[in-house]
Design a protein that fits this description.
heterodimer; A: about 230 residues; mainly alpha; 3 domains; 2 strands; elongated; B: mainly alpha; Arc Repressor Mutant, subunit A; globular
């Protein structure tokens, strides 16, 4: 009857896992074979038993208190979250304030971390000629710096203004440094570099003495010999 | 009259409606809508989580704890799970993972002792369509012996008569995969339980 061929198909058919073409063939055979019909019925019973057994394991419902308990837990959690945030907000605000103070303090400290340059200045009187210790030298320098200041800043030197004495060629740098310092924007690094420039020794060139020409009669003094005693 | 939780305070629905009317479109009404949707999930989804957990843990008390935890986590992530199908799929997977974690956390012997003492489970086994208690234990053992991939399909198929398509949605798998896994699971269980059925009177 070919029952060996169909024995392997019986369980699959009972578990709804057999192809429909094979299933038709199996059922056609089972309709004529008592043994296969019985085997199929047993396989089907086994399948039903498995399904019923698993269904029994997973049947059941949560208790009546389930929803109330869950709502209570949700409410508690929300309350706990709020309490946590209520503690965190003042803490965060305090931290932010402390951080801001720290940043401001550090910024100020950074501005003054370099050595403070010593700027040598001379005062010019409001009127009348200057009386420098070395005749002609300071006046020449002041005139030179005044000229450069006018070039750089577009404003002349006031007679009452303090003037910084710097070597020729470094005045622009010194003035920039001075401006930055006044505006409190200079960092320690800028100051150090500017100080290094300023502290360079003055370059004093040899003075070329021109032959003295004939003085005018107005300049002659009765106490001086314009010809050097010649 | 339903009560809805907002900000840790339970309000009755009429109060919520009043709030939503007074402040249309603001955060209150959005939170109200979320709370209302969660209430709907709360009405039908805990049973699903509970049964998935029960299929793994075989203990009503523990299954309820797992279902509670899964629903609480679902509540925390509800803004991402507003779609009903997505919510159910997420809940099944979470309950499944939590249950497996519990299984790993405790010994197998302790689980069986607790299951034996569980009054609710005993009541379930007295269903006329269900096999006797000893057979139920054997079915449980056969189910536990399945690989996790096959076991979840078997459990879901037994819960609420889920179809292959519904299980595929819940598990995020192709329908064919679910079908073949279900067949394999049932076949393995049938092979294990074959001798037990032969010794059981037909009926």
């Amino acid at each position: 009857m070919g029952c060996e061929k169909y024995s392997g198909w019986l369980t699959d058919a009972a578990l709804d896992g057999l192809l429909s073409s094979k299933q038709g063939e199996l059922f056609a055979h089972a309709s004529e074979c008592e043994a296969c019909r019985k085997a199929y019925a047993q396989a089907k019973q086994l399948s039903t038993f498995v399904d019923a057994g698993v269904s029994a394991l997973v049947s059941g419902e949560p208790s009546d208190q389930f929803t109330a308990r869950l709502r209570s837990r949700i409410a508690n959690e929300r309350h706990a979250n709020r309490a946590a945030w209520a503690w965190r907000i003042p803490f965060a605000a305090t931290t932010a304030i402390v951080a801001a103070i720290l940043v401001i303090t550090l910024a100020n400290w950074r501005e003054h971390d370099g050595p403070r340059p010593q700027i040598v200045a001379i005062d010019l009187p409001a009127s009348g000629p200057a009386t420098p210790s070395v005749p002609g030298f300071t006046q020449k320098r002041v005139a030179h710096s005044s000229h450069l200041r006018q070039e750089v800043l577009g404003q002349p030197t006031l007679s009452t203004q303090s003037e910084i004495l710097v070597p020729p060629g470094q005045l622009t740098l010194a003035m920039q440094f001075s401006d930055v310092t006044e505006k409190r924007r200079a960092g320690g690094k800028d100051r150090v570099s500017a100080q290094a420039e300023i502290e360079k020794p003055l370059e004093i060139k040899a003075i070329v003495i021109e032959p003295i020409g004939t003085p005018s009669p107005i300049q002659l003094s009765p106490f001086a010999d314009p010809y050097g005693g010649l | 009259m339903n009560r809805i939780g907002i900000g840790g305070v339970w309000l009755i629905e009429t109060e919520i409606d009043a709030l939503a009317t007074r402040f249309p479109g603001d955060a209150v009404s959005d939170e109200t809508a979320l709370a209302r949707e969660f209430e709907q999930r709360l009405a039908d989804c805990p049973k699903l989580a509970y049964r998935v957990a029960l299929g793994v843990l075989r203990s009503a008390t523990e299954a309820e704890d797992v279902a509670q935890e899964a629903m609480l986590r679902a509540y925390r992530n509800f803004h991402r799970l507003r779609d009903r199908e997505r919510f159910r799929a997420w809940l099944v997977r979470t309950a499944w993972r939590l249950s497996l974690d519990r299984i790993r956390a405790r010994g197998r012997r302790a689980r069986h002792e607790q299951a034996a003492n569980d009054e609710r489970l005993r009541a379930n086994t007295q269903d006329v369509t269900a096999p006797p208690r000893e057979l139920t234990r054997q079915v449980g053992e056969a189910l536990d012996a399945l690989p996790e991939k096959l076991r979840i399909v078997m459990i879901l198929a037994a819960i609420e008569g889920h179809s292959t398509r519904e299980m595929a949605k819940l598990l995020g798998l192709p329908e064919g995969t679910v079908k073949s896994r279900l067949f394999l699971a049932r076949k393995r269980m049938a092979e294990k339980l074959q001798w037990a059925v032969k010794n059981t009177p037909a009926g």
